Every structure is written in C-alpha cells, then in structure tokens.
Amino acid sequence: MDFSLGEELEAVRDLAREIFTDRTSPERLRTVETSPTRVDEGLWSDLADAGLLGAALPEDVGGAGLGPAGLGVLLTEQGRRTAPVPLWSALVAALAVAEHGDARQRALLPSLAAGTARLALALEEFGPADPVAPDTVAVRAPADAPPWRLTGHKAAVPGPVGAGHVLVSATTGDGAGLFLVAADAAGVSWEHAETTSHELGGHLTLDGAPAEAVGIPGRGAVERTLRQARTALAALQLGVTEGALGHAVEHLREREQFGRPLATFQAVQHQLADCYIDIDALRVTTWHAMDTLSDTGATDAERESAALVAKWWAAEAGLTTVHRVQHLHGGIGVDTDHPVHRHFLWGRQIAATLGGAQAQLAGLGDVLARTAVTS
C-alpha cells in the first residue's frame, strides 16, 4: 500500500512544519504552559490565517477538503513540536458536525476554519464506561424547548477554553448519539482539570442541559467519530515520538562518555533501533487507518479494526518510545525544562486518552468476534 503524500498533503505538511517550528521555542512553550488558558492563541490564529485549520474540512464550509489525511498530517507536525493548541479535539468535532450535522449546525464550521470559533469534544466519562455506550443520557424535551436535554458527566474534556460549543456523546432510547451543547448553556457547569500534558481540560457536568442532535441517534455517528478520534490521536502520537527520537539522536551524537559519543555504544544503538521500529509500525498503522476511513469501499468493521490497531500502537509503542527516549537522556530527561520531558508527558497523555492499550485490544477482539459471527 502506497502511503506517500501527494502535492496537496506535502504542502500542508511543509507549511505546518514551518509554522510550528517558528512558534514553539522553549521560551514560548514555557510562557503558554504557565498562562491561565494553556492555549497559544497567537499560534491558533497563525494556523487559521495559513488555512490549516480548514485543511481537513469540506470545501463548502471553507475548508480544503483533504479529510482525515489532511488532519493527520497537521497533527503529526503539531506532535513533533508539542505545540499547545487543541487541534485534535476541535477538528475531530468539526469533522463530525460536517458529516452528520444539518445546514444550521454546519454553518458554525466556517468560523472554526477562520479561527474565530472553536468546538470541544466530550467523549470520555469517569469509571469504566464504554465510549460507544455513554452513561450520559439524552431525553426528548418539550415541544417549545430545544429538542433534547442531556444529563450526566464527561471527564477531562480536552480544549474547553475558548470553545463556544461542545459536541457530547449521550445515550438515547434508540442508541448512542452526538449532541451539540452551548458551552455556557443553562445546566452546564465546568470544573478545571489539570492534565498530564499541562493542557487545561475540564470536567463537564450536564443537568438537563439543552442540546441539539447532530445526526440521528443510533445511526453510528458516535462510532464513526470515535474512529476518527482514535486515528487522530495516533497521528498526534506519531509526531510526538518522531520529535522525541530526534531529541535523542541529537543528544547522543553530542554527549560523550569515556571519550566516545554515546551514540556509538551498542546498548544505546539497540534502544534507538527499537524506537525506530516502533515508530515505523505506528506510522504504517496510522496511515492505514486514515486511508481506510476515507475508503468508501471499506466496511465498518475494517474501519473500526484499523482505528483500534493504530490507537494500540499509539498507546503501547508510543508510551514505550517516550520512556526509552527519556531514559537515554539520563538525568537531563527528568528536567521539566528540557524539551524531551514535554514529549514524555504528551506521550503518556495520548496513550491513555480514549483508553490505553488493553482497552484497544478488547475493542479489537469485539470487532473480530462480531465479524466472525456474521461471516
């Protein structure tokens, strides 16, 4: 399978790499991480001005129409520089609205592409709740009110700061569905949540909050959004691990012990080789998942399996890689001001989001079992 980038995706990659490299100096990252919002609003505006926030969105809402591949390229470059902007959650939510929303809901998307609005994505809950079957409940509202009311809790919602609306998964009598809720609506309350990666998330409580259904509940919108989210996280982790390995190579090339560069020691080379193999596997499975998501001939089981496999590599190999790289830096690796420590924190955060490696294997087992029964 050929995963080489075409001209459009290469242009997105090169432009994103230039912007992220220029806007993520260690000093700037430290400033953002100690700010009240933990979001680099200037970088967000720069990405919008360059047309990158709309790269994955359909053309009829102000985007470039590059779909999951466009999002994947952008997220990989973000991860390489650990740039503090809520891209994956905002853009996965936007793609879900673009696919499932009505004309009025889709009218929100040009503002997102322009950088003047943001969406947050609330898919996870406390405890062992399966993201496909959320404990948050949606019930029909009276005829003179917004059509749905949501009640429940969402855990560590990424990127709530500056988001005007939240895309929430909830269970109805017909199955799970996606719902659009104003972030400041009646019945909505937030509790700030510090995350491993220094991002400021939010625990969301819904108490009869008014909402609009995005698509028809029970028709697979939640499942498709989860596939896109898992693939997006894998792409982000790919960039994080590539950036971490780059720091290790630079460090080991310059650092000497017993009069020799550390990079010449066999044990160190073995560690680097293991990192390279894991990253390459993550790259292949991530691009396979993105390709499968866009393949109109693929079955839902094939799309689900590809996304779960990519997220497993992001969780298992991604976490192993950032651990190895931090170890290869010695005492410098635990210095919270060193760039490699930031990659370590991001790697841990991504690995656990939407479930760790064992959760992905359990989900993959369920898909394979269902496929075996129906075949």
Describe what you observe in this structure:
The chain has 375 residues and is α+β, with helices and mostly antiparallel strands. It is built from twelve helices and nine strands. The strands form two sheets. Strands 1, 2, 3, 4, 5, 6 and 7 form a seven-stranded mixed beta sheet that branches. β2 (137-140) and β3 form a beta hairpin. It is globular, with a radius of gyration of 21 Å.
Order of helices and strands: HHHHHHHEEEEEEEHEEHHHH
Q: How many strands in all?
A: 9
Q: What is the percentage of strand-forming residues?
A: 15-25%
Overall structural domain count: 3
Per the CATH scheme, the topology name of the largest domain is Butyryl-CoA Dehydrogenase, subunit A, domain 3
Note the main sheet: 7 strands, mixed
Task: Please state the overall shape, judged from the principal axes of the Cα atoms.
Answer: globular
Radius of gyration: 21 Å
- CATH architecture descriptor of the largest domain: Up-down Bundle
CATH level 4 superfamily of the largest domain: Butyryl-CoA Dehydrogenase, subunit A, domain 3
Low-confidence stretches: none
**Given this structure, which CATH class of the largest domain is correct?**
Mainly Alpha
Oligomer: single chain
- The helix/strand class is alpha+beta
Number of helices: 12
Estimate the helix proportion, in percent: 40-55%
**Spatial gap, N to C terminus:** 25 Å
Average pLDDT metric: 92
